[in-house]
Specification:
Order of helices and strands: HHEHHEEHHH
Structural class: mainly alpha
Radius of gyration: 18 Å
Largest sheet: 3 strands, antiparallel
Number of helices: 7
Strand order of the largest sheet: 1-3-2
Strand content: 5-15%
Shape: elongated
Helix content: 55-70%
């Protein structure tokens, strides 16, 4: 497997997950979905902080937030500590609906995506993906790809050699 193959696999897995979580039916652009994901993961945040975490331009985050507030998905307020900053948070209804979508099991989605494989191979591939998740993601804080880094990623609890 070449590095470009690994990259394409990661992108395809992300597309499959986004489709199943409803990104297409919600009519969200990838950047908007990224802002929405950030709000789910981090809760009430300043627009500047969302921009820093996602790697999106602050103007792009502001546009996404405006779209979310117009749809009734988010509410904004002035930061009580610094009135120049705008804080944004998801509404309780959106947080509850999104939580259900995010918590759904991937088994059904993977079964459909891996329809060309027989049942035993699908089970092995799904188990391998679960193991890859444990090894590469489970102990990591969520972050924007590509994450700014001065070196290779370090798993929690381990030191660089």
């Amino acid at each position: 497997m070449e590095m470009s193959d690994l990259y394409q696999l990661g992108r395809r897995l992300a597309e499959i997950a986004l489709e199943d979580m409803g990104a297409n039916e919600l009519g969200l652009a990838p950047g908007e979905f990224l802002v929405l994901q950030d709000l789910f993961l981090n809760g009430r945040s300043a627009i500047k902080d969302i921009a820093q975490r996602t790697g999106l331009a602050q103007s792009r985050v502001s546009t996404s937030v405006r779209t979310f507030t117009e749809r009734g998905w988010a509410a904004t307020s002035a930061d009580p500590d610094d009135g120049r900053k705008t804080l944004v948070d998801l509404t309780d209804d959106v947080r509850a609906t999104g939580g259900k979508r995010r918590a759904s099991r991937a088994d059904r989605t993977l079964t459909a995506a891996l329809a060309a494989a027989d049942e035993d191979e699908r089970a092995a591939l799904t188990a391998a993906l679960a193991r890859l998740y444990q090894l590469l993601v489970a102990d990591q804080a969520p972050h924007r790809f590509p994450a700014p880094s001065s070196g290779p990623p370090v798993r929690k609890g381990r030191r660089r050699a």
